[in-house]
Fold L-aspartate oxidase.
Amino acid sequence: MEIKTDVVIVGTGVGGLFTALNLPRENKILMITKSDVKSSDSFLAQGGICVLRDEEDYDSYFEDTMKAGHYENREESVDIMIKGSTDIIKDLVGYGVEFEKNGEEFVYTREGAHSKPRILYHEDITGKEITSKLLAQVRRLHNVTIMEYTTMIDIIEKGSQCAGIMAVTKKDDKEEELTIWAANTVLASGGIGGRYKHSTNFPHLTGDAIEISKKHGVRLDNLDYVQIHPTTLYSKKPGRRFLISESVRGEGAVLYNKDMKRFVNELLPRDVVTQAIHEQMEKDGTDYVWLSMEHIDKETIMCHFPNIYQHCLEEGYDVTKECIPVVPAQHYFMGGIWVDSDSKTSMKHLYAVGETSCNGVHGANRLASNSLLESLVFAKRAAAAISGTPQCK
Ligand SMILES: Cc1cc2nc3c(=O)[nH]c(=O)nc-3n(C[C@H](O)[C@H](O)[C@H](O)COP(=O)(O)OP(=O)(O)OC[C@H]3O[C@@H](n4cnc5c(N)ncnc54)[C@H](O)[C@@H]3O)c2cc1C
């Protein structure tokens, strides 16, 4: 089957949805997703989304992002993300997203490597709150069609430019190949966790866009920069690892070795805490270390982390009364398809946003809660570039 559209967007996470919402309504847009529309990592985000609290926080936020990224970050991208953050939060609130508030004031939480609290959250299901509200908005648009269970298998290259994609769609157990011609193509296909045995990501997120881009000589960047999250719930069951958000440690949870002794400052950057856990497990001859929430009062656990509380209970642990076993797992990909500050790849008419792209914001290691924000800021810029609106640097 052949389809013609103005813009094809591969992926229905925050990157894809926000691009669609910010494109002109006269554009005909086709969004495809490999699985059902809700199976994206965007729905899984727990901890929250960073925002510049006020002008005085700029230097500190910039430094925290750079330090976590081992100063390998692209400074221009970090600046764009931080300066764009307040507008993004306004956009989200306008779309009906609710963040924790005390009266009229936002409440901010803190995660590892942040020198102060600057993270907005919705219980421990911030990603679901944001993504479901964006999805509801997109579903109201008459110019957007979403095709589920439709997988991009290639891009169409014509005279060194991107002219759309090839995809396979599944219906009633039958597969059909699609040739999707598009004036502009946006790759928003998420991370690579599906390639790992232990990952917090959905298993169908296998870095397809990156592999396809490589085949076409599209520039890639930082392919060896993979973030391992220090704390996922240890389980012998196969499948996706359940994340114990860093904000749990931000609120006071501590890590213990087999002798119930602390061995690391829990709020150091993720890569440092991960390495300390690996070393401790090796020393102790164990497959996990312990995480204790004993210093967090029960009300905070129940209000801020109800989903984590419930999941652990289902696995047999009451976090208000006992420690839980945790182990590091693959979590995030800082590298990907190289893009400029307007999310343009090295191939004309091909854009990349979200985790599959690499605009350099995260450098060698992502600062907690910067990825939802980065995806949204640079998705909006991709939409502006496609529609020809100049963006300020
Ligand atoms: C457990 C967990 C907790 C997290 N917590 C936070 C947090 O608190 N704060 C934060 O900022 N970030 C967090 N993150 C990271 C953040 O959620 C992701 O980086 C971000 O949501 C990525 O958005 P995306 O739109 O790029 O990709 P995704 O939301 O992963 O969407 C990818 C989409 O691409 C589709 N797709 C993939 N391949 C193909 C293909 N070949 N053809 C068609 N479709 C395809 C998928 O089906 C999906 O729709 C967390 C991640 C995880 C896994």
Remarks:
- The chain has a mean pLDDT of 95.
- The two ends are 41 Å apart (CA to CA).
- The first helix runs from residue 14 to 22.
